[in-house]
Amino acid sequence: MQATLERLNEEFIAAVRNSDVVWFQRNLAPDYTNRNSAGKWETLQEFLAVNARPFQLRDFRASEVQIRMVGNDVALVHGKTQYVNPDGSPGRGRYVDVWQRSDGAWRCVSADVMRG
Questions:
Q1: 22-77 pLDDT per residue, tens
Q2: How far apart are CA 69 and CA 65, in angstroms?
Q3: Which SS3 state, helix, strand or coil, does residue 62 take?
C-alpha cells in the first residue's frame, strides 16, 4: 500500500509539471476538491481547466513526503515542493493530498496547496 501511494504521489507531481489532464481524470475522484495556493476552492472541472494550461514553474519537485494511513482505505500525503518561478526566483510550498481506496483503486479526493 505504501509503495502504491508513493508512486501515485510521484505521478501526481509529474502530472502537475506536465499538465497531464488525462492522468488527473484517471486518478482524481469525481467529487475532488482542491484549495489552490491562492486559497480558492476548486472543483474537479476547475482544477482540470487550470492544469490543462502549460505549467509555468521550473524544476518543480516534491520532498519530505510523508504518508499517513487513516484506517485501511484513507491516506494523507504531506509534502514540500520546491521550484523556480518564471522570474527566476526560488519558490517553495507544502501540500496535503487525501487519498481514498474504493473498489480496490486509490483516488485523490481532496488537496490543499500552500506556497511560501
A1: 999 999 999 999 999 999 999 999 999 999 999 999 999 999 999 999 999 999 99
A2: 13
A3: strand
Residue 15, judged by CB atoms within 10 A of its CB (0-12, 13-18, 19+), counts as buried
DSSP state of 56: -
36 contact partners, CB below 8 Å, separation of at least 6:
42, 50, 113
Q: Hey, what amino acid is at 113? A: V
Task: Kindly report the pTM of this predicted structure.
Answer: 0.95
- In angstroms, the CA 29 to CA 24 distance is 9
- H-type helices in 28-95, by residue range? 44-52
For residues 72 and 107, what is the distance between their CA atoms, to the nearest angstrom? 14
Q: Can you give the C-alpha Rg of the chain in angstroms?
A: 14
The residues with which 76 forms a beta bridge, in sequence order, are 68, 98
C-alpha pair distances (Å), 56 with each of 3, 12, 21, 53: 29, 16, 16, 9
